[in-house]
Amino acid sequence: MDGKHKDPAPGGGLGAAWRGIVPIGVASFVALAIGGGVDIVHRHQKSGEKERSAQPAAERDETGPRHVVAIRGAGGALVVRDVRSGRDVGLPVAAPRAQRFQRVAAAGDGSFVVAAAASGQVTFQRLRLNEDGGPEELAALPKAAVTGASTAWSDMAVAPDGDRIAYVTYQSGGIGRLEVVSAQTGQRKAWTTKTPARVSSLSWAGATLSFVWSPTRKVGGRIVHQVRTLDTAAAPGDLKTSKPVLKLPEGSSGAAVLGRDGRTIVAGLAQNAQITLQAFAIDTGRPGGVLWRQKGAGQVTRVSADHAGEHLLVLASDGRLHMDGAQPMPADDLVDAAW
Known about the structure:
This protein is mainly beta and about 350 residues long. It has one domain: TolB, C-terminal domain (Neuraminidase). The protein is about 5% helix and about 45% strand. Strands 8-9-10-11-15 form a five-stranded mixed beta sheet, with no helix packed on it. The longest helix is centred in the N-terminal third of the chain and has 8 residues, at about 40-45. It comes from Actinomadura rugatobispora.
C-alpha cells in the first residue's frame, strides 16, 4: 500500500484544517458536514451542547449505556462493570478452555462479540447480558473463525447487523491480514498487504469498513496515521484497494471511529493533559465540533461506539476508561472494553 493521499486545494485542505482547528463554538459546521446522519455527533448538536467536560455523574446525561464489557488481565476472563459505580456486575466469565480472550466489540442487536485465540486460530463467541446487566449467555459462533496470529496489534469490529465480523491478524514482520467473516454462514473475504503496518480502529458503516493505517516507517520523525475505507462488498485481495480519506492530526495515536453514515470520522486526541473527541468531515478533511473533552494524562488507545452509535467510549493509556455521561472509570486491569 502506497499510503499516498493528495490534499485538496489551499483553503480547503487537510493541512490548513489541522493548523487551525475550528473553535468549539462552531458547532453548526458539524451539523452541515453530517447532514443529520451521524448519531454520535447529531445528538450533541441537537441538545445545543458545544462541549462536554467531565462533571459529576448525577449532573450528566443518563441516556448512555449503563454497562461496560471488558477483557481482564491476560485474557482469562470477561467482566461487566457498571458505568457509574465502577463495580463488577455478576460473576466473571472464563475464557474457553486453552484459549485467551483477545477483543470485544458491541453489535447492533445489543449483544457483544468476543474473540478468543489459541494455536494460530481466532474463534468468536456472542455474549448477551440480562436485564440487570450481568452476563447471561456466552454462546460460540461455530461458523466464524479466522486463521492467523492474534497479537497485541490485532483489532476487531462487528457490523451493526451483528453478523459481519472484521478481524486483523499478523504474520512475522508486522504484515497484516484483514478478514471479514459472516457469523451466520461462515462466508469470508480477506485482504492482505506486503507493507509492515498496524491496521487498527476498525469500524463499520453499511458495507464500508474503516481502519487506521499506521506504517512502521516514520515520516518526518513521526508515524503518520491515515484513515482508510474499504468496500467489503467488492472483491477481496490487496488491502491497497482501500481508499485514503483522512490523515489524523498531531495529538492522535491512531484511534478513530467512522460515523454510521460513512461521512464523518471522530478521532481521539491527547494534548496538554486532555483527551478530546474531535469530529472531521470526510469529504473536506476539515475539523468540526468537539464532542467532549476530559482531563487525561495518557494517549488514546481505542475509541468505540455503543450499539446504537450514539455514545463513544475511550480506552486510554492512563489506565482509565473515559466516557460521555460519567466520570472516568479505573481500567488498569483491562486490555479491551466495549459498551
